[in-house]
Amino acid sequence: MKMIDMRSDTVTGPTDEMREAMAKAVVGDDVYGDDPTVNQLQELAAGMVGMEAGLFIPSGTMGNLISLLAHCDRGDEILVGKKSHIFLYEGGGASSFGGIHSRQIAENADGSLPLEVAQDAVRVDDEHEPITRLIAVESTHNALGGVCQTPQTLAEMNQFAKRNGLAFHMDGARLFNSAVAQNIAVSELTKHVDSVTFCLSKGLAAPVGSVLCGSHAFMKKARRARKHLGGGMRQAGIIAAAGILSLEKMVNRLADDHTRAKKLAIGLKDLPGIKMNPEVPPTNMAFFDILDSNPITIYQIEDELKKRGILAGSMGSRRFRFVTHYQITDADVEQTIAAMKEILR
Ligand SMILES: *Cc1c(COP(=O)(O)O)cnc(C)c1O
């Protein structure tokens, strides 16, 4: 049975065109800076986000860690969202590898950090306290349901960062989803941050890889941090070739994923015992909560879906998500709605 896999957009496989480009990629040793395909990807990415330089890296998780290591010293503190990927899902890498202390702030509904709260969190110059060094934002914000911040909100966060002498990092794992949903160029979002990472391996369908972008000075430190973490990849042009196609061919079609997530949410929203949250998916993720009044467990829903050939992602004990992506069709959405109707009947 073909499974309809909506656990995440990370499950997307490469397109046939990507496989062909990978087979033919011209390569060199990227740790020496000699891989022309990696260099092309890095320049393309930096150009799109309007920054000086890009760095091809194995994963988004490593990209965030490299950024934190490049911006911060040991003992520094970073301001991050309470539900951010950096805080929740990256193995505490910032503290274990960087000696970096995190201060978690409950996000606004759009995933931005409330600036009055952030202002109170900024440390004073006192030997008892760590030094606040950085503020981070997640775009789109995963755990909050794929929500986006507007350029205006990011501009305000940037002003806050500059006023307090902080670096501003964006975990843009799904940055292109945010830009496509708002119908703007990605640079309209990234011009407000000092560094950004985004994943090629999610909705953009490349098999592996992320890109980190920032200034030349930042990148010098970032390259060093990548090497320290074991992320220098030699003939990485083989996989960068797929990433180039992600940026050239796979960005605009993200709108289809967003349309399908909305269709799914419309089909699910009146079913008994669950609540879509957010009600209308802003990008490619449809989240729902199981209502307290509903005795069904997350495992029961998961099992019943699986019996019907559908995989969904559980996010905690009463929350689910369906993530739409390149390999999810309109028919898959219909089938999922029908299955959920049976399960929740
Ligand atoms: C997926 C994800 C990451 C990490 O990306 P990997 O390539 O899976 O390591 C970082 N931040 C957010 C918000 C994500 O969704």
List the topology elements.
Layout: E1 4-6, H1 16-24, H2 36-49, E2 53-57, H3 60-71, E3 76-81, H4 85-88, H5 93-98, E4 101-105, H6 115-121, E5 131-138, H7 151-163, E6 167-171, H8 175-182, H9 187-190, E7 195-199, E8 210-214, H10 216-228, H11 237-249, H12 254-268, E9 274-276, E10 285-290, H13 298-307, E11 310-314, E12 319-323, H14 330-344
Parallel strand pairs: 1-11, 3-4, 3-5, 5-6, 6-7
Antiparallel strand pairs: 2-8, 7-8, 9-10, 10-12, 11-12
The structure holds pyridoxal-5'-phosphate.
Characterization of the model:
It is a single chain. The chain is of the alpha/beta class and 345 residues long. The chain folds into two domains: 13-249, Aspartate Aminotransferase, domain 2 (3-Layer(aba) Sandwich), CATH 3.40.640.10; 253-344, Aspartate Aminotransferase, domain 1, CATH 3.90.1150.10. It has helices at 16-24, 36-49, 60-71, 85-88, 93-98, 115-121, 151-163, 175-182, 187-190, 216-228, 237-249, 254-268, 298-307, 330-344, and strands spanning 4-6, 53-57, 76-81, 101-105, 131-138, 167-171, 195-199, 210-214, 274-276, 285-290, 310-314, 319-323. The strands form two sheets. The protein has a seven-stranded mixed beta sheet with strand order 2-8-7-6-5-3-4, with helices on both faces. Strands 1-11-12-10-9 form a five-stranded mixed beta sheet. Helix 1 (16-24) packs antiparallel against helix 11 (237-249) and helix 3 crosses helix 10 (216-228). The model has no long low-confidence stretch (mean pLDDT 97). Bound molecules: pyridoxal-5'-phosphate. Pyridoxal-5'-phosphate binds next to helix 3.
